[in-house]
Amino acid sequence: MKVSIYRYNPDTDREPSMKEYEVDTQGKDLMVLDVLNLVKEQDPSMAYRRSCREGVCGSDGMNINGKNGLACITPLSEVAPGVKDGKKPLVLRPLPGLPVIRDLVVDMTMFYNQYEKVQPYLQNDTPAPAIERLQTPEDRAKLDGLYECILCACCSTSCPSFWWNPEKFLGPAALLQSYRFLADSRDEATEERLSRLDDPFSLFRCHGIMNCVSVCPKGLNPTRAIGHIRSMLLERGV
Amino acid sequence: MSIRTITFDAIVVGGGGAGMRASLQMAQSGFKTALISKVFPTRSHTVSAQGGITCAIASSDPNDDWRWHMYDTVKGSDYIGDQEAIEYMCQVGPEAVFELDHMGLPFSRTEEGRIYQRPFGGQSKNFGEGGQAARTCAAADRTGHALLHTLYQQNLKNGTQFYNEWYAADLVKDADDNVCGVIAISIETGETVFFKAKATVFATGGAGRIYSSTTNALINTGDGVGMALRAGVPVQDMEMWQFHPTGIAGAGTLVTEGCRGEGGYLINKDGERFMERYAPNAKDLASRDVVARSMMMEILDGRGDGPDGDYVYLKLDHLGEEVLHSRLPGICELSITFAQVDPVKEPIPVVPTCHYMMGGIPTNVNGQALKFSGGHEGEDQFVNGLFAVGEVACVSVHGANRLGGNSLLDLVVFGRAAGLHIEEALRQGMTQYEPSEADLERALSRVNRWNDSKDGESVSSLRKELQSTMQNHFGVFRKGDLMEEGVQKLAKLRERIANAHLEDKSQSFNTARIEALELDNLLEVAEATALAASGRTESRGAHSRYDFPDRDDENWLCHSVFDPTSKKLGKRDVNFKPKTVDTFQPKIRTY
């Protein structure tokens, strides 16, 4: 099959280019990461991030034939019709909207900065008991669909609002984590968390485009979480 | 010499659970601490841990007792786990787990609002007399992910200085073998830097990538063990590799033991629940070495399924969709993705798969690395300046076989213990050892070797050969002559790797260079494993030999210690002196 990959090495290249590779998949429905590993055997200079190869570490987010996803859990048959059979090329590009360091590796500093801005850690000044802080199964269930985020950045880098204002709009990943702590019955910093979001950009630049939902490899729904925060901000304003 | 030096009180190498628990402790104390990780910390392999963290927090059973957990762990280790260390882990465990809850870890809950605990293999009540216990604290089947993210978040809160995507290449030591820090490379820019510190903590994780088939992440290349061996630091019990019973056939992806804890069981191609024959009491919840061997016996006896008859099945459908989706959601996802099987409807094809390195750098409970000085504990000496925690360390709490759920406990308990110890030592004044120019040159020699290489074989082909050698010669069942062949192959591979070629010499995000440096570490781990495995002439825990099928307490109720300088295998006494309970005496191990 044919694979077309975005290549750029700042040491040697003036500008990026797409490079074509021919890979023998023996007709198997490999994961995109397996194909990349075969390319790297041919061309060790190919750079990309990878770690767990099972969709839980979030290293290998990339743009696969136009859609963001994790290379390690995207089988060729799901990329686009014809890709697995070699009728259409597999096209790999770095996640859009972030600076490219080399090949498929992007600089995620802006993404991590936004994550840090939501103070993504439990805040509770009440002295802790000798055992765990109790939490009902119902309260715990409120964290489902939030805590599972793997920080792969597929969502934020598919969001037009994040492309426009990556410094001011927190983006879907950071806002999902913001709500993860707002929703935690053990967290006491609700008011402070909300007041930090109450400006025209941090949250309100979300226009409900829902690209984040359609690309999330873990099936999470940042738009819904943003909606919950919106309601909390409105209630607080009343 | 023009290498940049960055100085800290303490550096931690590795951003998994153990490393981040240690760095958190030290950051809270205000000492200047850096964490160096070759990946962004939440990409570390702890993230893949599923089933939970085993600890007697007395939630599922209000009468649970850490001593029962200790008994299970000692028995699980096949009696070569150090009892003082196991005692410490099981006793301190509850405090360390409650701290994780206070930090925000989203544990699953019971109706009473307490942390949910599930049964895991090898667990018992009342010192093996009271039936199956449920002692593994869980956040659904994503406990490692929840734990790792929680620890990263707490490190952010407490201002740990992160060097993410920096690769530690080698230890720097002075002429007297005192550790002064590490040489590390910025993956992004290619810059090579000397990180100087009074305390260097290795938390580099495991090395499952020495095998072709493993549950381990691609980054698990034994960097800490490699660095230690090259610096002349001995390693212990390297023959002890855990094969997890349930890796997805073909893919190697882990399926948690929690599946069997929740009531799943293994069947052969005839649909028979075969564990009833091998472990009549514990059945599918016997300890991992026992279950993995039983599965291999079924396969070797022709009762495996598939085109090559090389796997059995994990049956879960009888648990019902609701239990599977609430307790094991991640497993349902993984199974559909990697086995194309929905466990709600069909059993998952599984096979024992390399999972965990019980051996590693010998340490005491404070994480201080030990030098071997000839026979008896008490005579151990410290490697000044070097600490190890987590999978790279051999405290040893797992001995010859680790119990499920004990690795996450090991991480937080000993990451924390090392942090506490170093904090106190720094307060009292630790020595900063100073390397000479020649010492630094020596530490840089390996990086320079690759950078100067002009031709030779490729890294990826040598890595494949190494992995298949380990897979074929040092698997679940072992045999003297077969291992001897493996040792010979590795010796040849050592020569070839020493002459291998790094074609890409560029600076920015050069992953080819990192993979070359990792290959050296894979080789060091493989060789230590091979020589320790052929040297231990008995069967114990995960180490199972056709030619020595029985446990030999007379000669081998001890640790093996591999000395990299002489390449000889020595013995070290097991600690049988817990502080607050009576010694658990070795018994015949049945489940």
Helices and strands, with pairings:
The complex is a heterodimer of chains A (238) and B (591).
Chain A: E1 2-7, E2 17-22, H1 32-42, E3 61-64, E4 67-70, H2 76-79, E5 90-93, E6 100-102, E7 105-106, H3 109-117, H4 137-141, H5 160-164, H6 171-182, H7 190-197, H8 211-215, H9 222-237
Parallel strand pairs in A: 1-5
Antiparallel strand pairs in A: 1-2, 3-4, 3-5, 6-7
Chain B: E1 4-13, H1 17-29, E2 33-37, E3 53-54, H2 66-76, H3 83-103, E4 117-118, E5 136-137, H4 143-157, E6 161-164, E7 166-173, E8 179-186, E9 192-202, H5 223-230, E10 235-236, E11 241-248, H6 258-261, E12 265-267, H7 275-278, H8 288-300, E13 312-315, H9 321-327, H10 329-339, E14 348-357, E15 361-362, E16 368-371, E17 381-388, E18 393-394, H11 406-428, H12 437-452, H13 459-473, E19 477-478, H14 480-498, H15 511-535, E20 544-545, H16 553-556, E21 558-563, E22 568-573
Parallel strand pairs in B: 1-2, 1-9, 2-6, 9-17, 15-18, 19-20
Antiparallel strand pairs in B: 3-5, 4-5, 7-8, 8-9, 10-21, 11-14, 12-13, 13-14, 16-17, 21-22
Helix pairs in contact in B: 1-4, 1-11, 2-3, 3-11, 5-15, 9-10, 13-14, 13-15, 14-15
Low-confidence stretches of chain A: none
Q: Find the structural class of chain A using helix and strand composition.
A: alpha+beta
How would you sum up the global shape of chain B?
globular
Indicate the low-confidence ranges of chain B by residue numbers: none
Terminal residue distance of chain A: 59 Å
Please report the number of helical segments of chain A.
Answer: 9
Radius of gyration of chain A: 20 Å
Work out the helix count of chain B: 16
Cα-to-Cα separation, first versus last residue of chain B: 60 Å
Structural class by secondary-structure content of chain B = alpha/beta
Q: What share of the residues of chain A lie within helices?
A: 25-40%
The proportion of strand residues of chain A reads 5-15%
* Structural Rg of chain B: 23 Å
Order of helices and strands of chain A: EEHEEHEEEHHHHHHH
Order of strands across the main sheet of chain A: 2-1-5-3-4
